[in-house]
Inverse folding.
């Protein structure tokens, strides 16, 4: 009996050992299956990741091509407005009146042009007599395509700006309200600023990429009131007053950069041209200090020369900004020079009393006077290449007319 028990114990032990072996083999098989499943899943994930990476690469390439295409459009279309024109401006002739319903605000910056992003057509922006809205007209068929409601007083300033693939209209009114309109977003109002001025808003600028920040600059054109800088972001907070501008009666502003600094050139009613640092407490230069006429408008010629129109005298002056001294004076044979634009590196056009005048900048001489509107000062000149018309000049006068000249 004792022997039988020993045999049974040995059998049980062997059975247990066999069972353990079976269990181990089963566990090893399960582990192998799990590892295989994990490897298969990992392979699937790797394939999925590669698929997504390839797809992302394709999307990035398509996006890059799309951006390149859009940028090409902009580069080509902007040649209509910003690049040098090739034709001789002496051949400009009256073509037609764009409108006789513009509301005259008495200010200089009272019309603007831009190229439509979607249809690549040419548009003009102005304020009509019938209300305080901003009207947008397609030039080729003179059709009003939008009327932007937001101002309650007559509009004094209209400027257009392009930043990357976004474009904006900046407008100001006699109630000291400045509005930034988002053209890409159905002309919605992006920002509003109620300026704390006694005087009207006389000029305004959008300033992009100033040390990686964007700003809105306003000027009242009044003595003792600083030009004011606001941030181009939500709620458009006030940023600072521009140094020394409270003495200037600034009527027209343009930006200029020099030696890594950012300046604003102020054409002033008080016979000054004042150049002030945008962000620092610095007056770079005070030009034209002798008694002269009121300076109404200007542009930068060959990067470092400032061409300025003169209200009271029949000439323009060209200042060397680096040397801070007068470089050249050119007779215009016409009074009340309110506006001045470059046609190309050779010619400039000045809006005067009832006419516009062409001068040769390189040779420093008067070239031609072309009659525009009787007994009306030309307050704004714009140039644009228009499909079917070629190189054109658009003139806005004191009064209600906007006229188009082409070659």
């Amino acid at each position: 009996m004792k022997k039988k028990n020993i045999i049974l114990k040995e059998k049980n032990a062997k059975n247990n050992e066999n069972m353990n072996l079976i269990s181990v083999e089963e566990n090893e098989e399960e582990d192998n299956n799990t590892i295989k499943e994990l490897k298969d899943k990992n392979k699937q994930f790797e394939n999925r990741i590669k698929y997504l990476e390839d797809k992302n690469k394709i999307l990035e390439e398509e996006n890059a091509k799309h951006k390149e295409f859009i940028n090409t459009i902009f580069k080509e279309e902007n040649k209509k407005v910003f690049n040098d024109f090739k034709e001789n401006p002496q051949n400009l002739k009256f073509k037609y009146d764009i409108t006789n319903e513009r509301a005259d605000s008495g200010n200089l910056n009272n019309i603007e042009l831009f190229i439509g992003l979607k249809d690549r057509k040419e548009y003009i922006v102005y304020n009509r007599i019938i209300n305080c809205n901003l009207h947008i007209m397609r030039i080729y068929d003179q059709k009003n395509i939008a009327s932007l409601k937001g101002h309650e007083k007559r509009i004094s300033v209209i400027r257009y700006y392009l930043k990357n693939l976004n474009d904006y209209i900046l407008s100001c009114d006699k109630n000291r309200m400045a509005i930034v309109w988002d053209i890409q977003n159905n002309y919605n109002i992006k920002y509003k600023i109620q300026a704390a001025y006694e005087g009207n808003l006389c000029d305004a600028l959008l300033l992009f990429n100033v040390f990686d920040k964007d700003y809105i600059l306003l000027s009242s054109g009044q003595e003792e009131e600083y030009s004011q800088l606001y941030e181009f972001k939500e709620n458009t907070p006030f940023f600072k007053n521009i140094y020394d501008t409270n003495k200037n009666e600034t009527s027209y502003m343009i930006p200029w950069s020099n030696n890594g600094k950012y300046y604003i050139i102020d054409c002033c009613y008080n016979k000054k041209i004042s150049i002030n640092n945008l962000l620092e407490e610095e007056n770079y230069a005070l030009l034209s200090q002798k008694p002269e006429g009121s300076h109404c408008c200007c542009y930068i010629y060959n990067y470092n020369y400032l061409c300025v129109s003169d209200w009271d005298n029949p000439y323009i002056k060209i200042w060397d900004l680096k040397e801070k001294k007068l470089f050249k004076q050119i007779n215009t044979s016409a009074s009340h020079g309110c506006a001045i634009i470059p046609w190309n590196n050779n010619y400039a056009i000045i809006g005067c009393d009832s006419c516009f005048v062409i001068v040769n900048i390189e040779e420093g001489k008067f070239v031609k006077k072309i009659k525009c509107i009787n007994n009306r000062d030309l307050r704004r000149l714009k140039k644009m290449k228009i499909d079917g018309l070629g190189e054109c000049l658009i003139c806005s006068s004191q009064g209600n007319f906007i006229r188009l000249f082409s070659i």
Summary: The radius of gyration is 34 Å. The CA atoms of residues 338 and 350 lie 7 Å apart. The longest helix spans residues 2-78. The helical segments are 2-78.
